[in-house]
Amino acid sequence: MPKRFANDLLYAECSRCGQPVLLEPDQTADIILWSGLNPLQLDLSCMILSDGCPLCDPEEEYFPTHIVRLKLEAAHATGHPLR
Fold first, then answer.
1. The CA-based dihedral angle spanning residues 4, 66, 50, 11, taken in that order and rounded to the nearest 10 degrees
2. Which end of the chain, N or C, is less packed with Cβ atoms under 10 Å?
3. Residue 53: is it exposed, middle or buried by C-beta count within 10 angstroms (0-12/13-18/19+)?
4. What confidence category does residue 2 fall into, taking pLDDT thresholds of 50, 70 and 90?
């Protein structure tokens, strides 16, 4: 039986500047819930993309997010920590 992936370990990144985004405790679970995705289908090929972050838009407090699944080749090309 495969190990269950810890969804709170999903990598989060700003889609504008590429910087990692630090999420508050339980924020990952909320993002997954709001996405409507089945949390059991997420794995380390998935990541959270934020449409902005405090570094590239310091005036904004909230940023839209979405969950994407990367192909292994794309993950290596972008430097996503899937290595």
1. 10
2. N
3. buried
4. low
Q: Which pLDDT band holds residue 82 (cuts at 50, 70, 90)? A: very low
Q: Kindly report whether the global pTM for this prediction surpasses the value 0.70.
A: yes
Strands across the sheet containing 11-14: 11-14, 46-50, 65-69
Domain residue ranges of the chain, discontinuous segments joined by +: 7-78
Distance (Å, whole) CA 40 – CA 11: 16
Question: What size, in residues, is the chain?
Answer: 83
Give the per-residue SS3 of 11-79. Answer: EEEECCCCCECCCCCCHHHHHHHHHCCCHHHCCCCEEEEECCCCCCCCCCCCCCEEEEECCHHHHHHHC
